[in-house]
Design a protein that fits this description.
The complex is a heterodimer of chains A (459) and B (438).
Chain A (H helix, E strand, L loop, with lengths): L1 E6 L6 E7 L8 H11 L6 E14 L8 E15 L2 E7 L4 H12 L24 H16 L7 E15 L7 E11 L4 E6 L4 H18 L7 E7 L1 H13 L4 H4 L20 E3 L22 E5 L2 E2 L6 H4 L10 E2 L8 E2 L3 E4 L6 H6 L5 E3 L4 E5 L4 E12 L5 E13 H6 L1 E4 L4 E8 L6 E7 L2 E9 L1
Parallel strand pairs in A: 9-16, 15-22
Antiparallel strand pairs in A: 1-2, 3-4, 3-6, 4-5, 6-7, 7-8, 9-23, 10-11, 10-15, 11-12, 13-14, 16-18, 17-18, 18-19, 19-23, 20-23, 21-22
Chain B lengths: L3 H12 L4 E17 L2 E17 L4 E7 L43 H18 L4 E18 L4 E16 L7 E8 L7 H17 L9 E4 L1 H10 L1 H4 L4 H8 L13 E4 L20 E6 L2 E2 L19 E2 L8 E2 L3 E4 L7 H7 L2 E8 L4 E3 L4 E12 L2 E13 L1 H6 L1 E4 L4 E5 L1 E5 L2 E3 L3 E4 L3
The chains are: A alpha+beta (459), B alpha+beta (438).
């Protein structure tokens, strides 16, 4: 069990991260499954154990006290799903005693004779508190900003997130999963800029530098005039659009508000050029996964195929009793939370147009490279997307002056139907933090730029 | 909760050569009951965690983990310090405080809690046939914590809180939703019927209302609106720039608000959700008057920013063992007037508006002295509501708002925002109403 992080000697370039740990070796999964099976004593009962170990290392802005924060935690949760009710019991330790007391609590039984307690002696937490890549990235970002001939004060908070999880059911034990990514917040005198990052390398530093430079230029720019017209979304903004208006709209818990989840299949939701998938196994190393947080295998899930809904994001709860809905999209942000259907790594298939072509087709419109947030209103199917800055598109597709932040609003079907062009160049990036229903996940996407015919923009 | 292991952790880190050390341990249990799209969900958690801050003359670190602090191995690998050295508060005398008996009262059991949520659903159905309870989450928990540092601070504290989140949708094709999030000490104290009535009122009003045209007049702001205004004014009440912000808002007489504006923060507020004798660093909590009768005294001040002119407020919060201590309000509120009923305020409005709630977040630009808050409520004429109002914004200058407070009611209510923020109903002039589209 070890962690290896390679950093070039000049500490200017983070080369790669590698991560070989077996944090759950030492678990007697057979005994655990046997104990769980005792609780699942009615037809249709589902019982599982969820174990997690997490580490978060934060490098705070220079000159702060303390300068570094290390948070480590581990624990388990036992869950019983019976009919339309679920019980979860969570503990902040992973050992046989905690397992037993949580199992009793989740199953709501007075003491009964359990099998002998399972072996749950885990190896020590895979501690790796040296974070050379965080220090190196701070330097990379400094250089990237200087490389743009820009200089302004900023404060960088950089976080490395690592999490290992293991789901054990009554019959099958999924392979343990791990998650490894970074996030950052840049505080500027005029704005706050945050990103989740699958990698922290030179490319990421340059992308961040361009983002804060654009914010700097937009800080004194005039606001966008309210309008209804064409826009071009950059790859990063498209990623947020996909998350808000495709993924959230096709999550089983959202669809269930309007009736049967399976009724969504076959509905024409957008333009024929739209092909959107959720593919956790195809995500970049560190955020890829083979099983979801209910221990179900993930799949390359077509959310939209030529604009038509194919397979919504479904967890075990919503897949029960359906022959057409496939589970495998459940996520939980911690042991204290219940699994919910969410996306992990969205992918939009590229089109054939260059960014220049898309801009030309949106003459007089706005170019919105990045989105800072968004929200879907599940009842009405309306959404809002916020953009920290915009650029005017002049005739011939030339990019013009900066404008300050703006908001785009509309309905899911209207915006997806008015997507006219899709770029051919795909970028992989974080779509941001999702906080729907009070659970917080980092979500990622690979998306090209998109051109939208007509959308309502407010300043 | 035994404080010996926490003191021992401090001693061990001191022995390892750290000059400044603070150790903190917290243990708690909570129950969460939820009615939502995935049916009924009951979550029971037993939580235990610790945190250490330590540093030498050059740098410092924060480390936190699950489990009990005595389980931290002697050879635990602490992170390499970074940033600046750690400064910690010294001991000081705290006010006498005995935890209320309700802190140890039994928490709701499953059938009680689910019955409470089901009664909310039923009540909603009676108020608005066809309305949907989209999500209801009732959470109740209690905790014990111990803090100790190398400068001699040793303190124990207890906490107890229950929260209720409700999200409802109207019955029509208007797709209106309304939410409510509240906190009290004991879940049994939630008044479910009045909560549902408030949500139903909001849905009815917003469904039938028109947005108001630009208008001035008298505005009776319900406590929910007042709380949002006070939240937006936090940069005036906390932070290094607060005094500068306040100075810019003062009038020629040195007043920031009308004589009815007295704003207080009290970490030890009797019966308050966050009531405690000490704050998250073990320093005594205090009742601090930040604005008195319209005159600005001082902002909330953590001990490290205190001076002769700015007294320390005991205002350093600690959201959980995972979080760094951070200065912020505990129970921050506008002082109510016990002699003024809300009905008398309604009756006093000859031509104006009764604004009952907010339809979204507001915007507050203290440097430009402007605010805007989307609101809903009623049009009032001679103390009577004549038509519902929605899709409008209350706007104006922040200084004019504070100086335009003509009366405050006795109905002080708190909301869990950034700490607990409370405000009574208040009658205001000097601001204006505009429709959202204008």
């Amino acid at each position: 069990m070890y962690c290896r992080i390679e950093v070039k000697s000049d500490s200017a370039t983070v080369v790669m991260k590698q991560f070989y740990v077996v944090p759950f070796s030492g678990l007697d999964t057979v005994s655990i499954a046997r104990s769980l099976a005792q609780v699942a004593d009615r037809d249709g009962d589902h019982v599982d154990a969820y174990l997690e170990r997490c580490e978060e290392i934060t490098l705070l802005p220079e000159g702060q006290s303390p300068g570094i924060c290390v948070r480590e935690q581990e624990g388990l949760a036992l869950r019983l799903v019976r009919g339309k009710s679920s019980w979860i019991a969570a503990r902040d330790r992973i050992d046989a005693t905690s397992f037993e007391s949580a199992l009793r609590q989740a199953s709501r039984t007075s003491p009964v004779v359990f099998y002998p307690l399972p072996e749950m002696t885990l190896r020590r937490f895979p501690r790796c508190v040296d974070v050379p890549e965080l220090y190196a990235f701070s330097e990379l970002l400094d250089r990237a900003i200087l490389g743009l001939h820009a200089a302004f004060p900023y404060q960088l908070t950089l976080v490395r997130h690592r999490r290992w999880s293991q789901v054990i059911g009554t019959q099958l034990t999924a392979a343990s999963q791990r998650e490894f990514f970074y996030s950052c917040v840049i505080e500027l005198p005029w704005a706050r800029y945050g990103q989740v990052l699958p990698e922290i390398d030179e490319v990421a530093a340059q992308r961040l530098a361009r983002g804060v430079q654009a914010l700097f230029k937009a800080s004194t720019a005039p606001p966008v005039e309210p309008r209804e017209g064409p826009v071009v979304l950059g790859s990063s903004a498209t990623a947020v659009l996909l998350h808000e208006v495709v993924a959230h709209a096709l999550e089983a818990d959202t669809l269930a508000l309007g009736g049967a989840v399976s009724a969504a299949r076959g509905v024409e939701l957008g333009s024929k050029c739209l092909n959107v998938l959720d593919d956790p196994s195809g995500a970049p190393p560190g955020i890829d996964r083979a099983f979801d947080d209910e221990g179900e295998p993930v799949l390359r899930r077509w959310l939209l195929r030529e604009g038509v809904v194919d397979q919504p994001l479904v967890d075990l709860y919503h897949s029960r009793g359906s022959e057409s809905l496939i589970a495998g999209a459940a996520r939980r942000d911690s042991r204290y939370s219940s699994p919910v259907p969410r996306s992990t790594f969205l992918e939009m298939l590229p089109g054939e147009e260059s960014l220049e072509d898309l801009l030309k087709a949106a003459d007089g419109g706005l170019y919105l490279p990045e989105a800072s947030g968004g929200r879907l209103h599940p009842q009405s199917g309306s959404f809002t997307l916020d953009f920290p800055y915009a650029r005017q598109i002049r005739s011939g597709g030339e990019l013009g002056e900066f404008s300050s932040g703006c908001r785009v609003e509309g309905t899911v079907s209207a915006i997806l139907s008015s997507i006219r062009g899709i770029g051919r160049s795909v970028e992989t990036a974080g779509a941001g933090w999702c906080a729907k229903g009070g659970q917080k996940f980092a979500v990622f996407a690979a998306a090209p730029a998109t051109q939208i015919d007509s959308v309502k923009v407010i300043g | 909760m035994d404080s010996a292991p926490v003191r021992e952790a401090v001693r061990r880190l001191e022995a390892d050569g750290f000059a400044a050390v603070e150790a903190y341990a917290k243990r708690g249990r909570s129950r969460k009951f939820e009615l939502g799209p995935a049916g009924k969900l009951v979550t029971t958690s037993e939580e235990a965690g610790w945190a250490v801050r330590a540093g030498d003359q050059h740098s410092s670190f924060f480390a936190a983990g699950t489990g009990s602090i005595e389980a931290v191995e002697p050879d635990h690998q602490w992170p390499q310090g970074e940033g600046r050295p750690l400064r910690l508060p010294g001991p000081s005398v705290s006010r006498a405080w005995s935890p209320g008996s309700d802190l140890d009262a039994p928490m709701l059991v499953e059938h009680e809690a689910l019955a409470m949520l089901e009664s909310i659903r039923a009540e909603l159905g009676r108020e608005i046939p066809g309305a949907q309870l989209l999500r209801a989450v009732l959470e109740e928990g209690s905790s014990d914590s111990v803090i100790s540092n190398s400068r001699g601070v040793h303190a124990k504290t207890k906490g107890r809180v229950a929260t209720l989140y409700l999200e409802v949708a109207g019955s029509g094709r208007d797709n209106l939703t309304a939410t409510r999030y509240l906190a009290v000490r004991e879940a049994r104290n939630f008044r479910c019927k009045s909560l549902v009535q408030h949500l139903a009122n909001e849905l009815f009003v917003r469904r039938d209302a028109k947005s108001g045209s630009r208008d001035r007049g008298e505005f009776l702001l319900a406590s929910e609106v007042g709380v949002r205004l006070l939240e937006g004014l936090l940069p005036l009440l906390i932070g290094r720039d607060a005094v500068d912000v306040a100075t810019r808002l003062e009038d020629r007489q040195g007043r920031i608000g009308s004589s009815l504006v007295t704003v207080v923060d009290d970490g030890g507020l009797a019966g308050g959700v966050l009531e405690a004798a000490v704050d998250g660093e073990g320093t005594p909590t205090k009742r601090m008057t930040l604005i008195e009768a319209g005159r600005y005294h001082q902002p909330l001040t953590p001990w490290w920013e205190a001076s002769e002119k700015r007294l320390p407020s005991g205002c350093v919060g600690r959201a959980s063992w995972r979080d760094l201590p951070k200065a912020g309000p505990t129970h921050l509120f506008l002082l109510p007037d016990p002699s003024v009923s809300v009905s008398s305020l309604v009756g006093a409005v000859s031509r104006g508006y009764y604004l009952l709630g907010c339809e979204g977040p507001g915007s507050f630009d203290l440097s430009e002295d402007r605010f805007s808050l989307p609101v809903w409520g009623f049009v009032l004429r001679q103390g009577k509501s004549v038509e519902p109002l929605s899709g409008s914004r209350l706007e104006g200058r922040i200084g004019a708002l504070l100086r335009g407070i003509q009366a405050v009611g006795r109905d002080l209510m708190f909301a869990p925002l950034y700490g607990m923020i409370g405000c009574p109903s208040m009658l205001v002039t000097g601001v204006e109403l505009r429709s959202v589209g204008s």
